[in-house]
Amino acid sequence: MMPPNCCLCENGIETGHECELVYFSKTESDRQWHAMAATGEGFTGHPPDCDWFCDLHMESAKSLVHWDLPTALRHLRENESWQLIYIDLFDRDTPPSVQKSGVGFESGFKLFWDRILATTEADGRRYPSDYRLSFLGNHPDYSLPRDCPELSLIKQNIPGDEKASEVIKLLSAGQASQMRKGGLKEAEKHLTDHCKQLS
Ligand SMILES: [Zn+2]
Fold first, then answer.
1. Residue 40 Cα, ligand 1 centroid: separation in angstroms?
2. Could you tell me the distance, in angstroms and rounded to a whole number, from the CA of residue 70 to the centre of ligand 1?
3. 141-151 pLDDT tens trace
């Protein structure tokens, strides 16, 4: 069995993240593997129809378990790949740059919020920088307007250190799930709904 490290990011043993094993639909050769494993004594190895996923990638994985593992991973890479783009507003000669790229809407939105909240004051003032979440699939980029009451509201409602990450994770998971269902418009609507509950 492979060590419990997420197959889509660096989360795992070394980062202190718990990962969960997710099983996918079996192909014919997966079935043969399991038949062999069931009979062969001392037959070891990692089953071909499952892999480890961290909490940020769990929902992406679970939405695709009706497919076999390679198909599911290919689908994720084709449809849920993202890049976080940093825009320096202080030095406008600096071109926007890719800060990080990854796979899975949850992890993309989570990173976007982590970074943008870290550059926003409680009164809504923002550092001279901005972020954009760019999707390699068939979606327009996600960004917030420069003057964004929703961003200020979220910043003001962020609890103390430990719970902050949970709140952001929940918001990101909600946006990711809506994105999967109805595209970016639905993800944006989720933010509006989220903020209605806060105000
Ligand atoms: Zn992961």
1. 32
2. 16
3. 999 999 999 99
The alpha carbon of 52 and the centre of ligand 1 are apart by a number of angstroms equal to 8
Question: What is the side-by-side order of every strand in the sheet holding 97-103?
Answer: 97-103, 81-88, 129-135
Which residue from 143, 46, 135 is spatially nearest to 86, judged by alpha carbons? 143
Instruction: State yes or no: pLDDT of 180 exceeds 90.
Output: yes
Could you give the CA distance from residue 149 to residue 195 in angstroms, rounded to a whole number? 9
What residue spans define the domains of the chain? 13-78, 80-198
* Predicted local distance difference test score (pLDDT) of residue 160: 76
Of the pLDDT bands very low, low, confident and very high (cuts 50, 70, 90), residue 2 is confident
What average pLDDT score do residues 176-188 get? Answer: 95
State the distance from the centre of ligand 1 to the C-alpha of 46, rounded, in angstroms.
18
Residues 6+ apart with CB under 8 A from 87: 96, 129, 130, 131, 132
